[in-house]
Amino acid sequence: MKKKRVGILGGTFDPPHLGHLILANEVLQELELDEIRFMPNQEPPHKDKPADVTSRDRLNMLELSVAGNPAFKIETIELERTGRSYTYDTMVLLKNREPDVQFYFIIGADMIEYLPKWRNIGELVQLVQFVGVNRPKYSHATPYPVQYVEIPEIHISSSLIRNHLQKKRSVKYLIVDPVWEYIKEHHIYGT
């Protein structure tokens, strides 16, 4: 029996944007995966915790973003735990929960450079296949096994969107319309 092939795209998704969706769709197609799971962090080890946006807000916006694509799912395992979200701990839990799934952990080139600093990286590369995607201004060089997928260069980031919102600039075409409606309705990011 063929193993289910699942891509994991972790992040703060603060907010989720079209770059996340394009990246996920490109990897899904290129590697012929069965699904992509978007996995919001509780507390990423390399970033500060999101300030004025709750985990519930980020999850709601992510649900709105992936609605309509049956291959896009949400994995809440990191939101169900407290403290820092270390990929190694999460993947041990996922592999124990779903031993027959082959996981592909998707990272941008910025994280490829950071891999030597990941907790238990030697053991982690035994649990998952890392998939690296290009990101402007970053190298793909790493001593770890990373499968590369070339994606369109997308210069959209969550910080760009938050910056636009703080300056009262439009975020149309950067996020899906239902996420924009959610942001306005819940008065987040200074709206």
Tell me, what is the CATH class? Alpha Beta
Average pLDDT level = 91
Shape: globular
Query: What fold name stands as the CATH topology?
Result: Rossmann fold
**Spatial strand arrangement across the major sheet:** 3-2-1-4-5-6
Number of helical stretches of at least 4 residues: 7
CATH superfamily: HUPs
Uncertain runs: none
The CATH architecture: 3-Layer(aba) Sandwich
The helix/strand series, from N terminus to C terminus, equals EHEHEHEHHEEHH
Number of domains: 1
Cα-atom radius of gyration: 16 Å
Total number of β-strand segments? Answer: 6
Query: Sheet bearing the most strands, described?
Result: 6 strands, parallel
Distance between the termini: 50 Å
Work out the helicity level: 25-40%
What share of the residues does DSSP label as strand, in percent? 15-25%
Helix and strand composition category: alpha/beta
Short recap of the structure:
36% of the residues lie in helices and 18% in strands.
Tell me what you see in this structure:
- The protein is an alpha/beta fold.
- It has one domain: Rossmann fold.
- Strands 3-2-1-4-5-6 form a six-stranded parallel sheet.
- Helix 2 packs antiparallel against helix 7 and helix 3 runs parallel beside helix 5.
- The longest helix is centred in the N-terminal third of the chain and has 13 residues.
- The protein is globular, with a radius of gyration of 16 Å.
- The mean pLDDT is 91.
